[in-house]
C-alpha cells in the first residue's frame, strides 16, 4: 500500500461566472485519519474535490496531493482513489466489467477486481448491469473503483448517500480501518450527524469559504457547557450555591449553572448534605454548532478570517446566463466522474442557502481583495465570537498576495 499523503489546499478559488463556488480555501488534510469535509448544499464541496482531482481548473490557488498536483502523479490510480458521482457509471456495463476496464487501464491484476467486489459486498451482483443498481449499490461500486489501486489517499464525495443503516455502519468501520492503516481519507457530507462518528477531523465550508477546521472535539467550546441541577429541597441547594458565590438561573427544570461541570456541583451538594433529584450536563449540540457555523451566526478562529457573505453573489442559480460551465480539464483516471453541468448538478438545481441576514449586518467588512485564511499549520484556538453579540473575535490578517494562478493552469 502506498503511503497516505498530506492534501493541501492553498487559496483554492473557483468562480463560475458570477458564482463564487470556492473562495480562497486554505486547508490541510492529514494522513492516518478520516477528515470530514462538510457544508450545506451548494457550499462548494464537490467543486473543491474536483479541483483536487484535476477535473476542474482553479480560478486561483492550488490543490496538491503529497505536494504534487493530481495531473503530475505518476500512478494516479495507486495514489488516489476517488468517487465523486455515484450515478455516472456506464449503465450497460456489469460491475465486474466496469472494474476490469479500470484495472486494465492501470495495469492491475484481474484478481484485484474480485477482491474489491468482495470488500464492498457486491460479489453476488458482479455480473449485473450497473443500470439496474440501486443508489446504495452504486455507492459501493464507486468505493470499489476507488479502492482498486489500493491507494494511500481516498477522496469520497458523499459516500453515505443512499446507504441503509447497516451500510452506513459498514462504511464507517471500513473508512476507519483504512485510516488506521495510515491512509488519508477525505469524505464529504452535508450532514454532520452522518459523519460525526466516523471522522477525527473536520473541514467545514459555507458558500465556498472555510468556516472551521480542526478536530471534532474543537467544535464546541467547553465554556459553553453548563450544569443543570435540582433538589427537592431547593432552598437548601440555593443556600449552598450562594455561599460559594456560584451564579445560577432558576428555571422550571432546576438550577442552570454556567461554566461549572456536574462533578463539582454534585460533590458540593454532597458535602453539604443536599440530596439531588437531577444533575446533568447541558451544552449546544454539535449539530447546533454546525448550523451556526454555516449560517455565519457563529465564527470560529480556525476559519482565519471573518466571513462577509454580503459580498458573495446570490446568483448561484442554474439559469444564471453568466454562470460559465467548464468542461473538465483532465480525464478522470480514477472514478468515472462525468463533468457536471448546471443541469445535472444537485447544487445547481436546488441551492438552499442559509439565512445570512444577521451576518450581513454584524460581520466586519472584508478588504477589497481577499483576506488570507488561517495558515494550515495553525492549530484551531478555542475562541469564538457569536455575531449576535456584536463581538467578532477574529482579527483579519493583512491581505494575501494576489494569486497568480500559474500552478493551477495547465
Ligand atoms: N459546472 C458548474 N457551472 C456553474 N456553476 C456551478 C458548476 N458546478 C458547481 N456550480 C455552482 O457552484 C456552487 C458549489 O457547488 P458544489 O456542487 O461544489 O456544492 P456542494 O457543496 O458539493 O453541494 P451539494 O451538497 O449539494 O453536493 C453552487 O452554487 C453550484 O451551483
Ligand atoms: Mg456535492
TrEMBL record:
Keywords: ATP-binding, Nucleotide-binding, Transport. Residues 400-410 have a biased composition (Basic and acidic residues). Residues 7-232 form the ABC transporter domain. Residues 359-385 have a biased composition (Low complexity). The keyword Transport applies. Residues 303-410 are annotated as: Disordered. One of its GO terms (molecular function) is ATP binding. CDD domains: ABC_BcrA_bacitracin_resist (cd03268). It comes from the Bacteria. Pfam families: ABC_tran. InterPro entries: AAA+_ATPase, ABC_transporter-like_ATP-bd, ABC_transporter-like_CS, P-loop_NTPase. Transmembrane segments: none annotated. The keyword ATP-binding applies. Belongs to the ABC transporter superfamily. PANTHER family: ABC TRANSPORTER, ATP-BINDING PROTEIN (PTHR43335:SF4). This is ATP-binding cassette domain-containing protein. It comes from Microbacterium algihabitans.
